[in-house]
Amino acid sequence: MKQLSESRTKLVFEKLSKYIGSNVKLLIDRPDGTYCFRERKERVYYVSERILHLAETVAPEHLVCAGTCFGKFTKAGRFHLHVTALSYLAPYAQYKIWLKPSAEQQFLYGHNVLKSGLGRITENTPRYQGVVVLSMSDLPLGFGTAARSTAECKHADPMAIICFHQADVGEYIRSESALI
């Protein structure tokens, strides 16, 4: 696993800061040790430095991965977050959207969040800001981009899109059924 280049590190941190802001540094320096980002085959992994040192003893052709896959680089050079990063982003998210129980299933099927399904939204959420989508019981369901600011949500039509879907925990099931 190789270290990310400076330009790729910048792309990863820009994407992460869209969701967690300045809390990116909390991902690196954690109480349980120092973590880092490494790349293998266009995928970016979040791994403890202690585990990374142990992985260096394995020959590169025998190592599949080490750590948690946070996302991948596209052929166009952009970075896309994977849903596997959700459990690490949710505690540090600056802006959150909570869904009503009736809207959770629609979001998990890959649909956008409508105003009628919105339970709560973080105050002062700007338009086009990265948000973490949660159930009313604070269970992380996925992430997306706010289609409207908090002020616009208050006066929006019930069928207006509030959050554009990007990734959700239901992707595991959908991708598995596509393989069958």
Detailed description of the structure:
It is a single chain. The protein has 180 residues and is an alpha+beta fold. The protein has 2 domains: 83 residues, Nuclear Transport Factor 2, Chain: A (Roll); 84 residues, PUA domain (Archaeosine Trna-guanine Transglycosylase, Chain: A, domain 4). It is 29% helix and 32% strand. The strands form 2 sheets. Strands 1, 2, 3, 4, 5 and 6 form a 6-stranded antiparallel β-sheet that branches. The chain has a 6-stranded mixed β-sheet with strand order 8-12-11-10-7-9. It is elongated and about 55 Å long. 28% of the residues are buried.
Task: Give a short synopsis of this structure.
By secondary structure, the protein is of the alpha+beta class.
Named at the architecture level, the CATH assignment of the largest domain is Roll
Under CATH, the topology of the largest domain can be stated as Archaeosine Trna-guanine Transglycosylase, Chain: A, domain 4
Number of domains: 2
CA-based gyration radius: 18 Å
Key descriptive features of the protein:
180 residues; alpha+beta; Nuclear Transport Factor 2, Chain: A; Archaeosine Trna-guanine Transglycosylase, Chain: A, domain 4; 2 domains; six-stranded antiparallel sheet; six-stranded mixed sheet; 29% helix; elongated
Topology:
Elements: E1 2-3, H1 6-20, H2 24-28, E2 29-30, E3 33-40, E4 43-48, H3 49-55, E5 68-73, E6 79-81, H4 86-89, E7 96-99, H5 101-108, E8 113-114, E9 118-121, E10 130-135, E11 140-146, H6 150-154, E12 161-168, H7 171-179
Parallel strand pairs: 7-10
Antiparallel strand pairs: 1-3, 2-3, 3-4, 4-5, 5-6, 7-9, 8-12, 10-11, 11-12
